[in-house]
Amino acid sequence: MTETIGFIGLGNMGLPMATNLAKAGHKVQGFDVVPAANEAAAKVGITVAATAVEAVKGASIVISMLPNGKLVLDLYGSGILAASAGTLFIDSSTIDIDSARAASALVVAAGMVNLDAPVSGGVGGAAAGTLTFMVGGAAGDFARAQPVLELMGKKIVHCGDAGAGQAAKICNNMILGISMIAVGEAFVLAEKVGLSHQALYDVASTASGQCWSLTTYCPVPGPVPTSPANNDYKPGFAAALMLKDLLLSQEAAASAGVSTALGKHASEIYQNFVTAGQGSVDFSGIIKAIRES
Question: Is the pTM of this model over 0.70?
């Protein structure tokens, strides 16, 4: 079934996601506040609207991919909720849980349907259509969205009610941030005691130390040729974005009254890295700060 889809936010993640929807035959009406993003969208078959409100006209599904919760709430208060009754709104931004729940309440109050559906997989996953979607919302609404989400991702997980998708994303990325620091520290220690990168990788990747940060995103050149370490740490997932997610984890932990000592320390380490001007470096580049510490 061909859908008319409004897509708000055509940046590094949003544009390839919207492109995959257009390639699948859907009519995609896109909008971004950055003119260059709109120009890029027009080149790949996306109908560019003059405003966000124009982008959602006639749409049965509206997808947003924005930098933070305030922008999502501002978007939902900008007039786009005057769309047709029953329109499905899917927010794939990574935002705080409270904002996700507030956004859902606004959509439902307007007679629409809402899901929070943040993603994992980075720019490469967005382009390849292999993202993981973590979805919060009613089961029936999830079933309605699943065919469209599957055009952009290979793993679609219903995590629970409104806000559960954001909760899953925040918890997952806290693990990721902590584990990348641990892997980086292990390689730096290996360097100091005379163990080669390849030897450590060959052991840890098949032993109890194996994890995604090692086997897919190894922070040193060589063992995993596709990792950013082999491309001067050009970002698939920038350190500034990792910091954002770690800070969201700490906000959630404070709100829930949970102590996450390693998550807190990881956020401090990435904060120092970003403050030192490394925010645009891939988050695996944290190994450079570890070497210098």
Answer: yes
